[in-house]
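Re-run requested by the PI after the first attempt was lost when the workstation crashed. Everything re-entered from the original request form. Ligand of interest: heme C.
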Amino acid sequence: MKVLRLLALVLLLLAPCTLQARWIKDKVLYTVADASNVEFSHYRHLEILGNNCPSCHNDIFHIVTAKNPETTMKAMEEGKSCGVCHNGTKAFTVADNCDACHAQ
Ligand code: HEC
Ligand code: HEC
Ligand code: HEC
């Protein structure tokens, strides 16, 4: 079953990315110990990026979430994880705008 699900996902990722992606879950919650939690919205990003799954998967974030290490802000400022885009060029930078991602 797990293999089938992965296969289906791989096929989907290879398909032209014009499809409506409402079957995936929207919010991904990052619990952050020493700052407030971060809620990532799939739907919002798909709206902005035009339903383009490969812009994140699997180079930046693996869909098998266990393969994604916890990241630090320092690593993001150096262009990892969210920081691939949130660098002040493609999107607002992680070096600032803390409350755009962290609720408080
Ligand atoms: C802007 C980046 C971005 C885009 C674009 C994106 N995702 Fe994701 N996706 C993420 C992040 C971040 C996670 C969470 C990773 C983690 O928890 O370690 C995730 C997780 C997932 C997961 C695993 C969810 C879980 O809880 O196990 C699936 C499945 C997934 N994405 C599918 C898709 C599909 C299909 C598309 C295109 C329709 C897509 N994603 C587009 C960033 C993105
Ligand atoms: C683009 C969204 C985004 C912005 C902007 C952002 N963060 Fe984060 N931050 C995250 C995410 C996501 C995590 C959790 C990463 C993980 O667990 O893999 C995190 C984790 C953290 C952590 C815990 C890990 C560490 O680096 O010690 C702290 C503290 C933190 N952020 C502070 C800040 C501060 C201060 C700012 C503003 C200067 C900021 N963040 C801006 C998304 C963001
Ligand atoms: C593939 C590029 C890409 C990645 C990776 C990415 N983002 Fe974004 N994100 C964008 C773009 C583009 C925007 C909109 C541009 C802007 O507002 O500067 C955006 C906007 C946002 C917004 C504002 C949403 C709104 O409603 O306006 C938040 C919050 C956010 N991202 C959080 C995150 C977090 C947290 C991560 C990592 C888990 C992440 N993003 C990873 C490209 C990306």
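Saved to the shared folder this time. The helical segments are 2-14, 42-49, 73-77, 98-101.
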